[in-house]
Amino acid sequence: MTRYLAPLHSGLRPVSLAVALLMGLPALVQAQGLRPSIRLGESVVRPATAVPAQRAADFIVAVVNSEPITNNEVKSRLVRLEQQLVREGAALPSREVLAGQVLERLINERAQIQHARETGIKVDDAAVDQAEINVARQNQLDVAQLRQRLIQEEISVAQFREDLRTQLTMTRLRERDVEPRVRVSEADIDQFIRKQLEEVDPAAVEVNLAQILVAVPEDAAAAQVSVLQARAERLAGRARAGEDFAKLAAEASDAPNAAQTRGEFGLRSLNRYPELFVQAIDGLAAGAVTGPLRSGAGFHILKVVEKRQGALPAMQVTQHRARHILLRPGASLSESQARDQLAALRRQITSGQAEFAALARAQSQDGSAREGGDLGWASPGQFVPEFEEVLNQLAPGQISEPVVSRFGVHLIQLLERRQATLTDREQREMARGVVREQKLEEAYADWARDIRGRAWVELREAPQ
């Protein structure tokens, strides 16, 4: 059975526009800096609020790989950004600062869209139709009602669909070029959970530290302190080089009973250690050595002997049990044809001519086919966003329209929904998704900088 494990990514999702829609339609995808590539001479309908009826002649402010960005494009995006900031109650920087940020965002976006186009990524009208349906559904509207809302907010339906197409393109580009680079280890998950526990309840994490103390008398002169610090540095260097820390502590530490305890404090919660120690070992794994640290008592060299994670607090979530039929577009099956085939299967099921499970066993191209498409119980974050967000809108027994994801085209049926307390293992899987998302954000930022760096950019006149 294939699991559609995915990041909890808040950025490049076609259906995430519903959030912007609820906040106020003019925002659209502005928060994510997404916008279609537009050449001079193309006819594009702009929101009436963003484009005055009377306007000065347009001019080019930048060129990205021979493709221009115009002053009016910057102005249009700038108005939308200002509207969003006002709605959110955020302080408005000067227009000059905002215009510079908008221009840089447009340059980055243009370079990425060009890269997508040059490397064969295409988004057809059927995929845009599905994204529009998803946005409408998330806002308890049908497509006609959604378009009416757009018109009421003076937003062009054509521009809205182009924004959807751009976001879908950016999503597919990210999925292809960035996501395969990201790996999450069990150590990454341990560190994340430990950090969360430390922030919520320091007593939930127990640590055994060992120390070597080089004591400094209260009335020590500067020269004596310097000598003692040098001694502490030498001991720390020996410890980091791999010498037995317990032996060093027994022989050289000025702490009481160091020989008997081997310098160890024993397992204790973080709130029983000095704040100086807690800050010094933040993020360190067992076996790490840090210091010397200066305190009123002298210089401390610390080794993390053991870190023991406390129990995770109970967490309740809404779980779904669903089944699906998956068709994977390829050389012999286009995405549009897959959608049509699944729509036909949906009609057979809803009319009573066929059973979902039987069709899944016969038609689905997923490992779950042998189970009649049954994906079992799933917690939030276990499916890719475009799958999960449609699933969240279904009532038990309801079957979706065909849904496009990175894996293909799905027909989804929600079987059951329940509230459940997650096991430790399930909580670790949720933590894995959060850590993966954090790593994806970092990888995406690095990748975007690389794409920007490889683009030829000519800055001309400043936006006005």
Describe the structure.
It is a single chain. By secondary structure, this protein is α+β, with helices and mostly antiparallel strands. It folds into three domains: 14-182, Porin chaperone SurA, peptide-binding domain (Triger factor/SurA peptide-binding fold, Orthogonal Bundle); 203-309, Chitinase A, domain 3, CATH 3.10.50.40; 314-424, Chitinase A, domain 3 (Roll), CATH 3.10.50. It is 45% helix and 17% strand. Helix 2 (71-87) packs across helix 3, helix 4 (125-138) packs across helix 6 (157-177) and helix 7 (186-200) crosses helix 15 (424-454). The two termini are 56 Å apart. Mean pLDDT is 81; it is low at 1-55.
Chain-wise SSE layout:
Layout: H1 17-23, E1 60-64, E2 67-70, H2 71-87, H3 95-118, H4 125-138, H5 143-152, H6 157-177, H7 186-200, E3 205-215, H8 222-240, H9 245-252, H10 258-261, E4 268-269, H11 275-280, E5 289-294, E6 298-309, E7 316-327, H12 335-350, H13 356-363, E8 374-378, H14 385-391, E9 403-405, E10 408-421, H15 424-454, E11 457-459
Antiparallel strand pairs: 1-2, 1-11, 3-4, 3-6, 5-6, 7-8, 7-10, 9-10
Strand ordering within the main sheet: 4-3-6-5
What is the third-level CATH name, the topology of the largest domain? Answer: Triger factor/SurA peptide-binding fold
Radius of gyration: 29 Å
- CATH class call of the largest domain: Mainly Alpha
Q: Which CATH architecture of the largest domain would you pick?
A: Orthogonal Bundle
The beta-strand count equals 11
Number of helices: 15
The pLDDT mean sits at 81
Portion in helices: 40-55%
- Through-space gap between termini: 56 Å
**Structural class of the secondary structure composition?**
alpha+beta
Please mark out the parts with pLDDT under 50 across 5 or more consecutive residues, or reply none.
Answer: 1-55
Global morphology: extended
What's the SSE pattern? HEEHHHHHHEHHHEHEEEHHEHEEHE
Report strand %.
15-25%
The number of distinct structural domains comes to: 3
